[in-house]
Amino acid sequence: MGLLLSVLCCCGTCAKSAGSCCCAMGSGAVRGSRQASKATYVVLLLLSGLFAWVVQRYGPDGEREFAELDFMCDGQDGDTVCSDVGFVYRVSFLNVIFFSFMLLATTPVPTCIGEERFRPVFGWSFHLGWWSIKLVLYFALMCSLPWLPSLLFDNPDNAYAWVARIASGFFLILQVLLLIDFSYQLNEDWLDRSEDGSKGWIIGLFIITFLCLIGGFGLTAAIFLEYGDCGTGKVFNIVNICLFVGYSILTFFRERLTDIPGSAVPVAIVFFYTSYLTWSATESIPSEECRPLDDGSNLVIFIGVGFAMLSMVWLAYTASKRASNLIAGDTKGGDNARLGDPSMGGIYAVGTDKAGNEIMARDTEMAAAKQEELENKNDALEDRPHIFYMILISASFYMAMILTNWGVIEGESGNAAIGNVSSWVKIVSAWFTVALYVWTIIAPLILDREFDY
Fold first, then answer.
1. What's the CA gap between 420 and 376, in Å, rounded?
2. Where are the domains of the chain?
3. Residues 300, 296: Cα–Cα separation, whole Å
4. How far is Cα 284 from Cα 290, in angstroms, rounded to an integer?
5. For residue 406, with 0-12 CB atoms within 10 Å meaning exposed, 13-18 middle and 19 or more buried, which class applies?
6. Whole-model pTM?
7. pLDDT 10s digits, 205-242
8. Among 124-133, 136-145, 158-167, which range has the highest average pLDDT?
9. DSSP code of 360?
10. What whole-number distance in Å separates Cα of residue 306 and Cα of residue 42?
C-alpha cells in the first residue's frame, strides 16, 4: 500500500495547491484562453493515460513494482486482467465521468433567467474558467480509483469493455473523417493563398506531398525488408500498395469523371496514414517473425499512444470549431450593447448642472460585467463545448482500448500493443480510410451533386 498511498498523497497535494487558487479568484470564474483551456483538458487526459500505461506495463505481471495494487482484485490473487487491465479501465472510466460532467455542465438548457432562452447550468464561463474547482474535482476522482468496484473491470468481457469498444469505433471514424477533410482543406486553402502570385504555398504543398510519399514508401519497404518472414504482414502490405495504385489512378482521372480536379496532397496523406497503420498492424501480430525489433513493443506502444493523442487534439479543436451553432437564432444581435441602455451599462442621466443640462455618466462596473458575460458566451459558442467534451469522452474510451488490446488478452507478453484484435483493428481502419477517400472522389458522380471540402 506504500506506493499507492504516496500516489494518493501526491493527488491530494495537487488538489490542495489547485484549491489554494480560490482565494485569488473572487467569484471563482476566471476566464482563460480558449486554446489554453482545451490544452489543459487534453494534458489531463494525456497524463492519466501515461500513468495508466506505466502501471499496466510495470504492474503485477511485470516487475512487481506496483504489486500493492493487488488489493483492488477482490479475491483474485493479483490476476493480470484485474491488476493491469482493470487499472487502465478504472483510469479511463474516471476520465469518462469527469468529461461527462463537463458535458452536462456546459450544454445549454432552457432557462427563464434574463432574456436568454438557453443557458448552461453553470453559466457560460464554466467551460473556460473555474479551474480550481475543476482540478480539485478531477484529482478527487482519480484518488477514488482504488475504491471502484472490481465487478465492472475484473475481466476482459465486462460491460465497460464493450461500451469502450463501441465508443472507440466512433472515435476512429471521426479520426478518419478529420484526416481526409484536413487533406482537402489544406490543399484548397494553400492553393487559394497562392493566387496572389506567391509560390511559397505551392512549394509547401509540394514538400508535404513529397515527405508523405517518402514516409509511405519507406514504411512499405521496411515491411518487405525487415518483416520478410511475416506472411500476414506481406499480405497487408501488398493490399496497401494495390489500393494506393488504385486510388492514385482514380484521382488522376477525377476531373474527367466528375469535372473536379484531383490533387496529389490528399493521395499522399492517405498513403502515409494507411502505410503507418499497415506497419503498426504487422508489428502487432503476436508472432516473433512479425516483430523483428528487439524492443519493438515499447516502440509500437509509444508511437500508437502518441499518434492517438495528437489526432485527438486536432480532432477536438477542428470538430468543435466547425460544428453547427449550439443555439438556433441570431447570436450576434444581442452582442451589441446599446449606448443608452442602462441595463447594458450604457450612458444615462445622473443629474443637471447649473445651466439645466443633463449630466451623463456611464455605469462602468455594470458595463464591464456585461462585457465579460458576452465574451464568455461568445467564446463558448465558438468553442462548441458539447462537441469538444463528447470527443474527449470517446477519446477516453479509445485510450483504454489501445492500452488493453481492445479488451482482449492474448499471448504472454503482457503488452497491449501485441494481439490479433489490435492488428485487425488497425488494418481495417486503413482499409476504411481508403474506402472513404474513394467515396469522396466518386460521390459527385454517383449522387449527381458537388461536395465542398
1. 48
2. 1-155, 185-323+384-453, 340-381
3. 6
4. 8
5. buried
6. 0.73
7. 999 999 999 999 999 999 988 887 888 889 999 999 99
8. 136-145
9. E
10. 12
Among 171, 158, 172, 167, CA closest to 407: 158
Query: Rounded to an integer, what distance in angstroms lies between the CA atom of residue 314 and that of residue 324?
Result: 18
For residue 411, the SS3 value is coil
Q: At what angle do helices 231-252 and 420-447 cross, to 10 degrees?
A: 20
Are 286 and 402 within 8 A, CB to CB?
Answer: no
N- to C-terminal Cα separation, the chain: 55
Alpha helices for 253-384 (secondary structure H): 254-258, 264-283, 296-322, 364-383
Alpha carbons 286 and 296: distance in angstroms, whole number: 12
For 193, the enclosing helix (H) or strand (E) is helix 159-193
Q: What are the tens digits of pLDDT across the range 373-410? A: 555 555 555 556 778 888 889 889 988 888 887 766 65
84 vs 165, residue with greater confidence: 165
Measured between alpha carbons, how far is 235 from 255 in angstroms, rounded to an integer? 32
Strands, DSSP E only, in 106-177?
109-110, 118-119
Only one residue has cell 488494418, namely 427
**Nearest partner of 379 among 102, 36, 113, judged by Cα:** 36
Sign of CA dihedral 163, 166, 172, 175: negative
Q: Which pLDDT score, from 0 to 100, does residue 339 have?
A: 35
| Three-class DSSP category at 130 | coil
118, three cell numbers: 438557453
Task: Please report the sign of the dihedral spanned by the C-alpha atoms of residue 287, residue 289, residue 290, residue 292.
Answer: positive
Q: What are the tens digits of pLDDT across the range 313-371? A: 666 566 655 543 333 333 343 333 333 344 434 444 445 555 555 445 444 445 455 55
Rounded CA-CA distance 139/149 in Å is 19
Going by the DSSP 8-state scheme, the letter that residue 144 receives in this structure is T
**Cα(399)–Cα(89) distance, rounded to whole angstroms?**
9
Tracing cell 466518386 back to the chain, one arrives at 442
Contact yes or no for 230/285 (Cβ under 8 A): yes
Place of cell 449606448: 339
Instruction: Judge whether 251 and 267 are in contact, CB under 8 Å.
Output: yes
Phi-psi region of 344 (alpha: psi -120 to 50; beta: other; left: phi over 0): alpha
User: 3-class SS at 431?
Assistant: helix
